[in-house]
Amino acid sequence: MPTKTPTTAGMPVWLDLMTPHSEAIRPFYEALLGWTFEQRGSEKGDYGVALSGSRPVAAVVPPFRGQSLWFLYFASTDVQADAERLRELGGQVSLGPLRVGDHGHLLMATDPTGAPFGLWQSGQPQGLGRTGAPGTFAWAELQTRDADRARDFYTALLNNTSRKVPGMEYHTLYRGQDQNVGVMQMDEIHWPPDLPSRWMLYFSVTNTDEAVRTAQASGGRPLSAPHDSPYGRLAVLQDPAGATFSVIQLP
């Protein structure tokens, strides 16, 4: 899993927590991930920036279509060209491309398996200020009903390569020699049949079991019990507004 701040096109560059309950949700993430928040504004409305220490790690913004969720953006050098490219590859544009002040241009889309994601073309040197440390982004994994189709879409759109994990229906995408994101096949045993394809974001914590207890005490709930994996101890959580994400205690 990456521990450096990604800045290359085709790699995760930013995270939005889309929620209609921005003020109410902040104490949950302050307790769980140690974040502080700065309130900012733009012509698109007010939003909050989550900080780990003094570095930006995510934003809290109004929901696009009413649903609370974590939303992943990939870096783009030409979001207009990428919009055309993703349509050719079978994806759909939901919003944009549109300009966000002097900060850059964004696009919201869905991949051919129905998972929402975004592209961000920065107008200034910026992005995730910190990754891999406790309280920050650690990994992103597409959980999808059609992993082969999703893998082909993202490797082409993001100029990535792919390697299948032996013994699993799981593909790891690479940007050069760097692991980028994962693509997992959703089966009928571990996922409800009505659960749509989605990007699952992982945040690093120092102790997964303690994080689950903190989440419960702060109004969230666990969707899976803490469990060990080759990559660390994991748990899936839901915040008080319904946004789902995972925490991982890296080895």
Automatic annotation (TrEMBL):
InterPro entries: Anthracycline_SecMetBiosynth, Glyas_Bleomycin-R_OHBP_Dase, Glyas_Fos-R_dOase_dom, Glyoxalase_6, VOC_core. SUPFAM superfamilies: Glyoxalase/Bleomycin resistance protein/Dihydroxybiphenyl dioxygenase. Residues 11-122, 136-250 form the VOC domain. Gene3D superfamilies: 2,3-Dihydroxybiphenyl 1,2-Dioxygenase, domain 1. PROSITE patterns: VOC. PANTHER family: GB|AAF24581.1, GLYOXALASE-RELATED. This is Glyoxylase CFP32. It comes from Deinococcus carri.
